[in-house]
Structures are given as structure tokens and as C-alpha cells.
Amino acid sequence: MILSFSQKWPASMGEWAGEPNYFIYKIWEHLFDQVDFKEFAACASDHLLRFGNHWDIPVDTVKPKLHTIRHDPHDRWKPGMKIHPVINNRTKNYFQFAPEFLCVSTQQVDIIDSAYTKDYAGISIEYSHRHKDGGVEEYVKHWEVVVDGVSLKSTQIEELAVNDGFDSVEQFFTWFNAPMRYKLIHWTSMRY
User: What range does the domain containing 10 cover?
Assistant: First the structure.
């Protein structure tokens, strides 16, 4: 099944808007030793020829993207499915940037706004919002992440964020900024 990835953060990402997210490179970091080398090299070469090398990130600072979190209301993603990782889905620039690989497992993820929860094992993030009149509102949100019914501790949330391709937990909660149920799609044996 097609799994589409963006290459830059959208406008909704605030200070990160328009910046590259390096998802292709972060996925390549893990897949390099996991898929057929000739197929991998062909995809990487095709990408370079088609789009050029646009990565200005120091290679030794990149953490691999080991999974993705997606809204899956129809429960379509199942272990054993083939993942076709693409960019520019549904455009003339559609491109599969790596050989297909397997969905190893899935987990249910609930992002919860814990403002009204007495005890939680989550994380608190400070936000500021600039109003049109120039005023700035600062506030704190308390987030909880529950995977398969178990609340993650703050260190586990940080690990989840980095393994999902985010540079920080703040960046993660800027993207996942509303309570919702998601599916964690794994292409490694990792579990939370």
C-alpha cells in the first residue's frame, strides 16, 4: 500500500514551516541494510537525478525514522502489508523513493490533552500564540500518549517522537496538536 511522505514541514508547523523534514533520508538511514542493495541504490540514484541532492543536514546527526503515525479510521494498515514509500503522491512528480518493505506490526496510539486529568505520565509543553493585534498569549498544554492502552512516560514520548522523524517532542506536538486516535505503523521489530 502507498505510504506518502512530505519533504518539508507545512505552514501549520509554525517556526519549522517550510523547512525540510529529511524524512526520505531518515527512512533511508534504516533501510540501507534492510532491503536489496541494488534496488535501494537504483531508487537513491533516481531520486538524485530527478530531484538533486537537497540535504544540508550533517549525516552523523540524523536519527533514522523507524515508523510513522497515521490516522487510520478504516483500520486498513495490517502487519504483512507491503509499504510503497512515496513523495509527491497524486501528482505528476509521484516518486517511490525506496524499494517496498513490510509493515512488521501496528499499534494503537491515542494522543490525549491531559489538562483535565488529575494524574498523568505525560509531558508538558509551553506554547506561545501571537495574536493579530500583536499580543502574545503563553500557555502550557499537558499531553499524554497512550500506546495499546499503556501511558508512555516522558522519556518514552521523547523516544517515540525521534523515532517518528521529529527533531524534538515540541515539534512532535506541534504536528500532533489535537487529541485523536492514530495507528503506529512499524517497519522494524520495535514496539512501545
Answer: 2-186
pLDDT in tens, 162-192: 999 999 999 999 999 999 999 999 999 999 9
Pairing of strands 150-151, 136-147: antiparallel
pLDDT score at 54: 55
Largest CA distance in the chain: 57
DSSP sequence for 171-189: HHHHHS-S-EEEEEEESSS
Q: Is 191 within the bounds of a domain?
A: no
Number of domains in the chain: 1
Asked if the structure places residue 168 within a domain, the reply is yes
The CA distance from 120 to 23, in Å, is 31
Does residue 192 belong to any structural domain of this protein? Answer: no
- Res 56 pLDDT > 70: no
- Alpha-carbon distance of 149 to 187, in angstroms, equals 21
Compute the distance between CA of residue 43 and CA of residue 72 in angstroms, rounded to an integer: 28
pLDDT tens sequence across 96-124 = 998 999 999 999 999 998 866 656 667 88
Contacts of 174 (CB under 8 A, 6+ apart): 12, 13, 14, 16
Closest CA to 159 of 65, 26, 45: 65
Angle, helices 23-31/37-51, rounded to nearest 10 degrees: 160
Contact 165, 86 (CB under 8 A): no
- The reported pTM is 0.86
